Amino acid sequence: MDYSDEDLINDKRVSDTCSISIILSTKDPANPAYQTPSKVQRLIPKDISHEIIVVHYNQIDYDSNEPNDDIINSKINYDEKNNGDGHIKNIIHAVINGEIGSAFSKGLQISKGQFFLVMDGDYPYPDAVVAKMITELVKFPNSILIASRYADNKNTQRLPFVRTTLSKGARIIIRHGLKIKDIKDPLSGCFATSRRILENVVIETSGSEILLEILVKGDKYNRENDVTVREIPFEQKEGILKKLDSNRIVSYSKAVWNLYRYGRKSHRMANEREIVEQKKHKSVLFLSKAGRFFTVGASGLIVNYVASLLLSNIIPNIWYIHATLVGIIVSISTNFILNKVWTFEDWDFSLRHFFRQYGLFLLLCSFGAVVQLSLVSIFFGYYHIQYPLSLITAVAISSIGNFLLNKKVTFGEKIWG
C-alpha cells in the first residue's frame, strides 16, 4: 500500500497502547545535525506514546574525563526546547564516551518503549521513510524494518570509484561470509524493530554495524518465530556522504570477523547439542528396549510354570519332562510375540517374515541356554564359585547376549539405538 507523507504523519489507526522509543545517535554536543527531536516528533502518529532518546557519542566531561549525562542539558538549544507550539516533551539526552554502537546500547538501556526506531541523527533520512517505518512497525510488530539505500535500485548517487568498490566488497563479504543474502543494506544506520526481538541479541559492537549484528545473531530466533525483515528504499541525496576513514574500516573488519566466529561457534554448539540429544535419545531407547525385553523374559518364567503345571494336571499320566518341554515352547512363543510387538514394535506378520524371525528367536534362545549352562559349569565346577552367584552371573551374561543378538539378528536393529 502506498502512503502520502501527510497520511503517514497523521495516521490515526495505530492503537494508543503502543509505545515507541526513538534512539537518535549524534556526534553533535547539542543536537543531531538532521534528525532533531522536534522534527522526528512531528513524524510520530499522535496515537502512539513515545519517547525520544538523543545519545551524544564521543562526548566526555573534560574536567573529570568521564561521560556525564548532565553536561548536555545546558547545551540543548533554546529553540529546540520551545520549538513551534511548545509540544516538545518526552525527550531524554544522554552522553557517552564511545562510538555509535555504544550510543545504541546506551539508548536501549534507558529506553522503555515496546518498539524501537534506531537512527543516525546526523544523516538526512527522508521524513516519509521515517514515518512509514514507525507506522509499519506497529502494524507488523514481528518484523525488522530497514531504511535501505540499495533496495529497488534506489541508490543513484555517484560515488568515487574506490568508495564504490569498498562498499560493494563489504556487502559481498556479508552476503557470502555471514550468509545475509536477502538484505541489500545490512549496514544501514536506520532500522526499526520490537523489544521482544532485540531481547534475543547481545550487542557487542561499538561501531556502526549494529543492524548487521542483530541480523546475524538473531537469525535463528527470527527463522523460528517467523520474523520478517523488510527494506524500505530511499534515495540518497547527492553530496551527503559519511566519511569513510580507517576507524570505520577497522570497525567493520572486526565486526565481520567476530560475527563470522560467532556463526561458526553457534553452528558448532548447535551440532554438539544435536549430537548430545541424539546420544541421549539412543541411550533412553536402548535402555527402554532392554527393560522391555527382560520384562518379557520374566513373564516367560511365569508362562512356563503355569503352562507346565496346567498340562500336568489336565492330561493324566503325562511325563513331567513332556509337560516341561511344552511349557518351554509356549513361553518361548509368547516371549517372541511380545518382543516382536512390544519391545521392537515390529508389526510385519507376513508368514515368511514371521516364521523366519521365530526360527531365529528359537535358535538364539537355545544358544543362550547352552551359554548359560556352560557358564554355570565353568564358574561352579572349575572355579568353585558358589552356585547361587554362578547361576546369577551366568543368567545375566546369557540374558544380555540374548537381547543383543535378537535385537541385531532377529529384528534387524542396530545394537545401540
Task: Provide a descriptive summary of the structure in words.
It is a single chain. The protein is an alpha/beta fold and 417 residues long. The chain has two domains: 5-244, Spore Coat Polysaccharide Biosynthesis Protein SpsA, Chain A (Alpha-Beta Complex); 279-410, no CATH class. It has helices at 5-9, 37-41, 78-81, 100-110, 127-139, 161-177, 195-198, 210-217, 219-224, 246-314, 320-343, 351-382, 387-410; strands at residues 19-26, 49-56, 91-95, 115-120, 143-148, 190-194, 228-233. Helix 2 links the parallel strand 1 (19-26) and strand 2 (49-56). The radius of gyration is 37 Å and the shape is rod-shaped. It starts with a helix and ends in a 7-residue tail after the last helix. The model is unreliable at 1-16, 62-67 and 71-87 (pLDDT under 50).
How are the secondary structure elements laid out?
Elements: H1 5-9, E1 19-26, H2 37-41, E2 49-56, H3 78-81, E3 91-95, H4 100-110, E4 115-120, H5 127-139, E5 143-148, H6 161-177, E6 190-194, H7 195-198, H8 210-217, H9 219-224, E7 228-233, H10 246-314, H11 320-343, H12 351-382, H13 387-410
Helix pairs in contact: 10-11, 12-13
